[in-house]
Amino acid sequence: MTLSYVLLQNLRRNPLRTALTAVAFALPMAVFVLALSLVVGFVRTSAALEQELRLGVHHRVSLTNFLPDGHRRKIEELDPQRTRLRAVCGMRWFGGRVPGTQQTLQSLAADVDTLPIVYSDIGLTEAEIAEWQRERRAAIAAGGVARQYGWQVGDRVVLESTIPPYRQLEFRLIRIWDESPFPMTFYFRRDYLLDAFERDGQIGTGCSIFWVKCVDAAALRSLQKEIDALFANTPDETRSEDENAFVAGFVQAVGDLPSLAQAMATVVVIIVALVAGNTMMMSFRERIRELAVFKALGFSALRVFLIVLSESVLLALLGSALGILPVVAGLTLIPPDRLRWGAFSPPELSWLAVLGSLSIGLAVGIAAGFWPAWQAWQLRTTDALRRVA
Amino acid sequence: MALPLVYHWRNVFVRPTTTTLTILVVAAVVGLLGWILGFAAALGSSLAVASDTHKIIVIRRGSTSEGTSALPPAEFNKLSQVTGLARDPQTGRPLVSPEMTVQVALPRKRDGGRTTANVAVRGVDPDRAFAVHRNVRLQGPVFATGTQEIIVGVKAAEQFAGLKLGDVVNLGFGNDRGYRVVGYFTADGGPLESEIWGYLPSLMNAYSRNAYSSAALRVAPDEDPQQVSAQIEGPAIQLTAKTEAAYWHEQLKLVRGYLVIVTGLVLIMSVAAVCSIANTMFSAVAGRTREIAMLRTIGFGRGRILLGFVLEAVLLALLGGVLGCGLCLAWLQFVGRTKDMLGASSFTTLAFEIRLTPTIAAAALAAVVLVGALGAFVPAWRAARVQAVSALREG
Predict the structure, then answer these.
(1) Under a CB-based contact definition with an 8 Å cutoff, are residues B102 and A63 in contact?
(2) Cβ within 8 Å, pair A254-B342
(3) B340 interaction partners in chain A (CB closer than 8 Å)
(4) Predicted confidence (pLDDT) per residue in A43-74, tens digit
(5) B67 interaction partners in chain A (CB closer than 8 Å)
(6) Phi-psi map region of A115: left, alpha, beta (phi>0 left; psi -120 to 50 alpha)
(7) Low-confidence ranges of chain B (pLDDT < 50)
(8) Whole-model pTM?
């Protein structure tokens, strides 16, 4: 009689209980793997952003206050030798939307000369950079927004601004940025915006944010302090933060999903542990005499211990798999754009999350089975056989 | 004759371990549920308050919110043609309030100021604004028009640092004008409580603005707000008019989406709780087959036994529910009850305070009763169908 045979027989003995436990285990595990996917997605994005070494400099009062264009030169002069900063790219919020829709895109007018350096992660090719510099209406759209509106490279695109003076501008897409961590991003040239505004006597100067591409992390920290000190006590004080801190502000503001996911994950682990523990206690109690018979037949204490423990582990893994599979299938089959939360990346299916969930399932199985298994180990055959269940 | 309640009460504690584990599962789910219902209630009351049918918010065409709208005085003055507005009983002027909305980044108290939130600052003319925004009530004095003073909504004051009475908040385009907090105001719990209000000309000057952001209008009680909106959107004025309800419904889109996600997750976990209770009850029934047979023999009917076991599960679930509500209360009390989220396009934050009111606790407990009953029904059915004779003969 092999261990696996005993295990299968035991699980099949009370199919209803096995099924109920598996479901009670699977559903929270589905939530868990979803929550973990979300967190893994955020962690991955933030790790990627950290490598980009970008420092965002914006107005201290709020992002809606523009900083004068001259700040760029002043920031560059902090490091004329370019030993700490590579380039500075000024950006102005355009807040454009496709006419007739309600969704505001993260559309920003960017300095034409430095965008390819500061946003090297877009991965513009030589030819694309040349086109960006030649074509005044050039624009780069993130994959999410391009898919949503069915845009292709070369398309003519019109956006209307939702902020004063509510201009409509026409662009030509030169690149779709598929790997953008923020799927609703849209970049275009700031000189184009300036000209369009000035032709109509509107003011287009001023940047919402300056992105400073730094050489290394130490340079980023030192520049952060120096820039804020440089503009302190001027009419346009700045607040500098690295890109992750900047993004974290928005994550907080749209509901702080990562914290929610973490809280959910914690509660879920508690629930599944209780569910599994409950089932194992019940199974054990009902089978005390049977286990005693095993012992009386000469099974070693260790073997009985293993029988009980592995039943718990098997049940937990079964439940976990049952919960994880539908989520894996869902995240694979549903187009990620439909799972997007605001302007942030959708939960991303990662093997890290799946593996993490399985190991949590395993750990819960061990924890839940340990106490009954230990009691089985210590079971005194004579007492147990005498006992009436 | 029904089975006495005390029979079930005692039975719940026959297997302390199983009972405790089941109670804890239910408690964990109910704790989450309580939090979510509390948040949903906060959102609901915000929306309910912000649905004054006779208040219209006017913004510039093409803009999506007060924060991104610019209404130059020339455009604003066109609103004087609008008919059907309520009038000030003293001056006889129509109730139209010009307003300017800007933002200031203030540290959140919740995380010790590690992050900041965009708090709306609204410049208003007190003579007109309080007549249009009827639910705004002052606690303390209003800001003076001659000096730099502001009043703060109670929710903003609770959640963001630096808004105590007497504190000075730096505002203005250059962040160099200190405005002193002189009083608080309430708005029946509505979204305006997340804002800071100051004197319109003073704030416009501080931000070097010559345009308002928006206007709020009060429609006369016997007039149709639709007809007033139609005038404003029509060819003569060409601005966007929204009733307060429509405006905030749109702004709270993100918050609603968040609630839908969370509620979905909790529903999933509730099914897990149902399964857990079913498991426990199956075990209870299986362990008591002979006892049930005995009860049947001495004359308890099937219906009674079915009801009895459902009742037992409900008792079990209620214990978990009460514990869960307690956990939720403790969490709100000691960890935090505040949450703030950005409006969908306004770029300013809306603060919510989550409370576990008796109504919400009752709703959570009602859900728990349902969970218990659902989980127990099949096992109880099985108990009711125990064949007395054969069960007594066994074992």
Answers:
(1) no
(2) yes
(3) 253
(4) 888 888 889 999 999 988 777 788 999 999 99
(5) 64
(6) alpha
(7) none
(8) 0.79
Instruction: Answer yes or no: do B345 and A162 touch at CB < 8 A.
Output: yes
Q: What is the pLDDT of residue B375?
A: 87
Q: Which of A16, A63, A271 shows the shortest C-beta gap to B25?
A: A271
Q: Name which of A65, A95, A277 is nearest B68 (Cβ-Cβ).
A: A95
Model ipTM value: 0.73
What's the mean pLDDT in A203-225?
93
pLDDT of residue A200: 84
Question: Which residue of B lies nearest to A15 if distances are taken between CA atoms?
Answer: B279
If you average pLDDT over residues A227-253, what whole number do you get? Answer: 87
User: Mind telling me how many Å the CA of A3 is from chain B's nearest CA?
Assistant: 25
Give the B window 156-175 contacts with A, CB below 8 Å. 170-175
Query: Is residue A389 over pLDDT 50?
Result: no
3-state secondary structure chain B: CCCCHHHHHHHHCCCHHHHHHHHHHHHHHHHHHHHHHHHHHHHHHHHHHCCCCCEEEEECCCCCCHHHCCECHHHHHHHHHCCCECECCCCCCECEEEEEEEEEEEEECCCCCCCEEEEEEEEECHHHHHHHCCCCEEECCCCCCCCCEEEEEHHHHHHECCCCCCCEEEECCCCCEEEEEEEEEECCCCHHHHCEEEEHHHHHHHCCCCCECEEEEEECCCCCHHHHHHHHHCCCCCCEEEEHHHHHHHHCHHHHHHHHHHHHHHHHHHHHHHHHHHHHHHHHHHHCHHHHHHHHHCCCCHHHHHHHHHHHHHHHHHHHHHHHHHHHHHHHHHCCCEEEEECCCCCCEEEEECCCCHHHHHHHHHHHHHHHHHHHHHHHHHHHCCCHHHHHHCC
Residue with tokens 């949450």: B339
CB contact under 8 A, A271 and B211: no
Which residues of chain A make contact with B262, given a CB cutoff of 8 A?
260
**Among B residues 20-49, those touching chain A with beta carbons less than 8 Å apart:** 21-22, 24-25, 28-29, 31-32
| B267 part of contact set with chain A, CB < 8 Å | no
